[in-house]
Amino acid sequence: MPRSERHLANTQSPAHCDVDEAIAACRLRGAQMTPLRQAVLSALWSADRPLGAYDLRDRLAEECGRQIAAPSIYRTLDFLCEQGVAARIESLNAYVACVHSDHDHACVFLVCESCGDAVEIENQQVEQLINEDAKRLGFVVKHRVLELSGFCAPCQETS
Amino acid sequence: MPRSERHLANTQSPAHCDVDEAIAACRLRGAQMTPLRQAVLSALWSADRPLGAYDLRDRLAEECGRQIAAPSIYRTLDFLCEQGVAARIESLNAYVACVHSDHDHACVFLVCESCGDAVEIENQQVEQLINEDAKRLGFVVKHRVLELSGFCAPCQETS
DNA sequence: CATCAAACGCAACAATATATCATCGGTGCA
DNA sequence: TGCACCGATGATATATTGTTGCGTTTGATG
C-alpha cells in the first residue's frame, strides 16, 4: 500500500498529512517547491517502500521522459529532508516521504527485511529519554537516526 | 582518546571490556579468532573514531606490509558485528569496537559532527520502549540502529 | 595424513555519493 | 530596458563504499 493511502489506516497516530499538505507546508515556510522537488516528493509518496536515489532517478525518467542526473536527485532529497517532508533511512541508503507533519520530530522507522517497507512511528518518550542521556553527557543533538529492522506482521504470517 | 584507554574514564557505565576480553569472549562462543580478525578488532580499538572499511584497509596495510582486499575487510567486519564486539554506524558508513560486552545489546551512539568520534551508551529503557512499540505493531525486531549526531561536550567548548 | 568446511585472496564490478563548472530563470535595482 | 545577482538545475567526471564469483589456503578433526 503506497504512503498516499496509508494515513487512513493509521488512525491511531497523530497529525498525518499527504503530499499536497506537505507541499503547502514547505511553501508556508518560504521554501521554493519547484517541479522537480514536487515530482520527487510525489514519487516517494506513491512508492510502497523506501526508494534509493537511483531508483528514484529511474522512476522519474519514465515520467519525465528524460534522465535527471544523480546530483540533482541528491540535492532535491537533501532539500526535502531539511524541510522534514522526507527522511533518509540510513540502514537502507534510501528515502521515504514523512508521514508526520511536524517540522522537527524524531521518528522511528520499522524496516521490514522481507517486504522492504518502512513504517514510521512516533514516540515522544523515546525522544525524551534520548535527549536526557545526551544532555547528561553534554552532547547537543542535531539529528536522530532511529531504525529497527526485522519483520512486519504481514510478512510473518506468510512465512 | 582511543577506545583502549576510555573504559577507565567511563566508570559509570556497566560491563566494559577491552580487546583481549572481547577476543576471549568470542573464543568462548566457539568463534575462530584468526589473525586477521584480531588485527581488525585491534585496529578498531586503537582508533579514536569510527573507521570506514577502506580506512581500515589502509591502516592494516601499514601494519601488515600488504594490502588486504576489500571483501576480506567486509567479511571480517560482518563477523565482528555478528559477534557483538564491533558495530556498524550506519550514518557514517563506519565501524567501531563495542565497549559493552553483552552479546545482544542495543546501544545508542552519540556521533560528533566535529571531531568525528562516536561514543556508545546503553539505555535499557529506550530499548524497552522501542520493543513495546514494535510488539504492539506485531513487528519482530532483529536489529537496532540508534544513532544521534550532533556535538560532543569538548567540541562545544572549542567552538 | 586425509578430509572437509571455513576463511581468505583476487579480480572485476555494482551501487552510492560528491565535486566542479556551466546554464537557466527569476528578482531587484539603477 | 539592461544588468548584476542568486538559487536551482544540468552535465560530466570522479570518488567512495560495497558485492559477486571463484579459486586457493588454512586449520580443525577423525
The oligomerization state is homodimer
Taking pLDDT < 50 over at least 5 consecutive residues as the criterion, the unreliable ranges of chain A are none
Largest pleated sheet of chain A? 3 strands, mixed
Main interface by residue count? A-B, 33 and 33 residues
Average pLDDT, all residues of chain A: 90
CATH topology (fold) name of chain A: Arc Repressor Mutant, subunit A
Label the CATH architecture of chain A: Orthogonal Bundle
**Strand residue content of chain A:** 15-25%
Query: How many domains is the backbone of chain A divided into?
Result: 1
Specify the number of helices of chain A.
7
- Elements of chain A, N to C (H/E): HHHHHEEEEHEH
Instruction: Name the shape of chain A in a single word.
Output: globular
* CATH class identity of chain A: Mainly Alpha
Helix content of chain A: 40-55%
Question: Would you kindly provide a brief summary of this structure?
Answer:
The first copy, chain A, is α+β, with helices and mostly antiparallel strands and 159 residues long. Chain A is 46% helix and 19% strand. Strand 5 of chain A pairs antiparallel with strand 5 of chain B.
Structure characterization notes:
The structure is a homodimer of 159-residue chains. Chain A has 159 residues and is α+β, with helices and mostly antiparallel strands. The first copy, chain A, is 46% helix and 19% strand. Chain A is built from seven helices and five strands, in the order αααααββββαβα. Chain A has a three-stranded mixed β-sheet. In chain A, strands 1-2 form a two-stranded antiparallel ribbon. In chain A, a hairpin with a 4-residue loop joins strand 1 and strand 2. The mean pLDDT of chain A is 90. The first copy, chain A, binds a DNA duplex (30 and 30 nucleotides) through helix 5.
